[in-house]
Amino acid sequence: MWQEEEEEQKEATWEEYSVLFRDFYRHMTFSEYDKCEKYVVFIHEHDFPEGKKIPVNGSDSDFFSTIISNYTIYTHKAEVKMPSGNVDKPSIEDNRDGTVSIKYDPREEGIHELAVKYNGEHVQGSPFKFHVDSITSGYVTAYGPGLVHGVSGEPCNFTISTKGAGAGGLSLAVEGPSKADITYNDNKDGTVSVSYLPTAPGEYKISVRFGDKNIKGSPFFAKITGEGRKRNQISVGSCSEVTLPGTITDADLRALNASIQAPSGLEEPCFLKRLPSGNIGISFTPRETGEHTVSVKRMGKHITNSPFKVNVCEREVGDAKKVVVTGNGLKEGKTHVENHFSVDTRNAGFGGLSLSIEGPSKAEIQCTDKDDGTLNISYKPTEPGYYIVNLKFADHHVTGSPFTVKVTGEGSNRQREKIQRQRDAVPITEVGSQCKLTFKMPGITSFDLASTVTSPGNVMEDAMIQEVEDGLYAVHFVPKELGVHTVSVRYKDMHIPGSPFQFTVGPLRDSGSHLVKAGGAGLERGEVGVPAEFNVWTREAGGGALAISVEGPSKAEIEFKDRKDGSCDVSYVVSEPGEYRVGLKFNDRHIPDSPYKVYISPAMGEAHKLEVAQFPQGAVQAETPAQFIVRKNGAKGELDAKVLVPSNQSDDCFIQLIDPDTYSVRFYPRENGIHAIHCKFNGVHIPGSPFRIKVGKDVADPAAVHASGSGLHDVKTGVKTDLIIDTCNAGAGTLAVTIDGPSKVSMDCTEVDEGYKVRYTPLLPGDYYMSIKYNNMHIVGSPFKITCTGDKLAEEGAQETSSVIVETVPKVSKGGKVALPLMPVFRSDATKVQSKGMGLKKAYLGKQNQFTINATDAGNNILYVGIYGPKGPCEEVYIKHTGRNTYTVNYVVRERGDYVCIIKWGDDHIPGSPYKVEV
């Protein structure tokens, strides 16, 4: 609420920090691994001395009449929602230093909500909840800011009062996204001061119990603000290997898959490998003692001697309690230096070691495996603050894990800017309505753009692309069925960033950050002082809050334009060159592939004079040199050129000076796929760089790859599940499957007729996100959200990532070597088709005879109309689709006699067909 008594209100700016945020915001950095948003709940509980009565010492402190929200956030609007539902206005005082104080004197008992807004948007953590109790209740009560809000990495304080409550045991639990160390002090006056240290943002539940019962208002919920933790993770494998009898060729090995079943019934995929002896062995992590069963199958059938029996003894099973960890690096650390500790697994059996470090910066991890069961590990953080080190062996925490480490020292002084905008859900589109997907791509010609739409029934049609305004394009199409459509947009026969797109016709089947897409030059590269632009598509994700942040050597100016159709374009300008992180969050969770690492080059300078000539058009062939010319046009400096190949490797180009003003750039592609040629002059990209070029004809098409199977939906812990990735007619490419979730999963990928089968076994319940990329581009629907239920078979810790990568071979549909179009799956009922018109009964020579067909309620299929007379088919039949499965049919007859009109909806006659027509 703006203060009316002020004649002129001074507007708060971003530089005018509040006391809540001031120190913290100097230490923000992003990392490409910053995706630990599905927080694991840690519980840390303390028991206070019980059984003693804390006497009232006559103190007349009036605790609850002075519960005043006295934290300060810069804002100009605040309101309190009382338990009765009424809304009250707290008082706001301008502190004249870029902050304001909000004070409120409550009048009701119960849970209150304080909403604090700036420029119409909730500040971070708003609305805040707090509980108000009466002064003379005689119960144990708790009060203080730590029950309402706080900042990650800073102690949160509150007080518990037991005055007049009698004798009883007092206990306290704090649950939330991070482990929170709790300290307390008995004030000897009937009150206890409590402090807890949260190391990650999010909502924390504080339960205060007296005599095994929650006190009034408990559990309290505190909003802890601050940026998400940055995570780095390494895994070191330690597996048991068992030789299998018999000989298997390398060609057979690729078609085999193996799984191992423990005595308890837990079944996991395991890896087949060629042992030094030449025999085939399996590699697995033993979790139980006893007889295990190994099944090795080819195309779903056991090979000879399968299943095999393997006995696991007690000393082979991984035991995290027997891992010994030493070193000062798990107690305290310094920024910009290596902090060391060592891990000894020699007496702990077989198991994989998983290490993750989360905190204000992505800490670079170095791991030296001595091959004797011991490892030396070091990490180098760049920002001070509290870090959490998760150390797990065989999927269980080692003793003391997770470790809370206080890191001190200088930060990197990176600057950060953030904006947040509310996105409304787009109205549902219907069959037959005009659908639109927009994107911004400045500096191109619309002649080189093309788009196709593939329906859920696998019918592909061309879509129209219209230039709405300069650089802004819209894809238009009219869907004929409900469900998820695939929209491919190509520029010069190559998918634009973000393509292929998912477009749902009818109600959305899912929502959330994993369905947000982003793409554009501004997420790949940029130039100082020039707006870097990119698109964000939130249509498939439903409504929510989109937060955009840019962090790097200088502060960014961010511009946001909503296109009101579920998409928006974003641009940002920075004043210093260097490496930046662009973070995109939807409802407080990073979208796929966020944060993006972007290198902003210095101002273009002389580089803008250079131009490219004789660049190869269309596709070039692998293992054949290709070249183009770069003209300097008088610019002074050096040209550098590199080519980035589909396997994400970098290769040098051969540069030769033909004459003082002209370079010849030659490159030698060795693999098929989309290559990007980066041409820089004096370290700055020349106009149009990086140049994309297609190599080979069999380019992998992610729009043609589909995933299906039970492994994409609801799964259970300890149960092996699978899915099929259909790569028929998609060409050869690199298939990468990554699973992010509460636990690491044993995963394998084997070849099948229609593509590749992926199998995995999750160990912890929760949400898993499976990314499926083909040649580094997400297929439609990726990442898939998979909900896992069941018992906990491993210990909770940080998010875990598991992945498998396969170089695919070309696949075609069954039934022939030629890649034929896949027939769509039709669901229709011909009995619901209606037809009417004079042309079904009587026709006139040489004239246009007409009738109509209405198949709106008959599902989707193909309409067949045939008119046969005394001397064969009639000369001319014209069918026009008028929308929503209604058709107009015109025909012309040249001979007299009786004709037969046959109308089929798919393979079935419609009611009344065949019709007898008199001419």
Give an overview in words.
By secondary structure, the chain is an all-beta fold. Strands 19, 20, 21, 22, 23, 24 and 25 form a seven-stranded antiparallel beta sheet that branches. Strands 36, 37, 38, 39, 40, 41 and 42 form a seven-stranded antiparallel beta sheet that branches. Strands 1, 10, 12, 15, 16 and 17 form a six-stranded mixed beta sheet that branches.
**Count of helical regions:** 1
The outline comes out as globular
The CA-CA distance between the termini, in Å, is 82 Å
Q: How much helix, percentage-wise, in residues?
A: under 10%
Over the alpha carbons, how many angstroms does the gyration radius reach? 33 Å
Largest sheet: 7 strands, antiparallel
Low-confidence blocks of residues: 1-44, 49-75, 816-820
Mean pLDDT: 79
| Structural category | mainly beta
The total strand number stands at 80
β content, as a range? over 45%
Write the layout of secondary structure elements.
Blueprint: E1 42-47, E2 77-81, E3 87-88, E4 91-94, E5 100-103, E6 110-118, E7 121-122, E8 128-132, E9 141-143, E10 149-151, E11 156-161, E12 170-176, E13 181-186, E14 191-197, E15 202-210, E16 213-214, E17 220-225, E18 230-236, E19 240-243, H1 250-255, E20 256-261, E21 267-274, E22 280-284, E23 290-298, E24 301-302, E25 308-312, E26 324-326, E27 332-334, E28 339-344, E29 353-359, E30 364-369, E31 374-380, E32 385-393, E33 396-397, E34 403-408, E35 415-423, E36 435-440, E37 449-454, E38 460-469, E39 472-477, E40 483-491, E41 494-495, E42 501-505, E43 517-519, E44 525-527, E45 532-537, E46 544-552, E47 557-562, E48 567-573, E49 578-586, E50 589-590, E51 596-601, E52 611-613, E53 619-620, E54 626-631, E55 639-644, E56 650-652, E57 654-659, E58 662-667, E59 673-681, E60 684-685, E61 691-695, E62 706-708, E63 715-716, E64 721-726, E65 734-741, E66 746-752, E67 755-761, E68 766-774, E69 777-778, E70 784-789, E71 800-807, E72 834-836, E73 849-854, E74 863-869, E75 872-873, E76 876-883, E77 886-892, E78 898-905, E79 908-909, ...
Parallel strand pairs: 10-17, 27-34, 44-51, 53-61, 63-70
Antiparallel strand pairs: 1-12, 2-3, 2-6, 4-5, 6-7, 6-8, 9-11, 11-14, 12-15, 13-14, 15-16, 15-17, 18-29, 19-22, 20-21, 20-23, 21-22, 23-24, 23-25, 26-28, 28-31, 29-32, 30-31, 32-33, 32-34, 35-46, 36-39, 37-38, 37-40, 38-39, 40-41, 40-42, 43-45, 45-48, 46-49, 47-48, 49-50, 49-51, 52-54, 54-58, ...
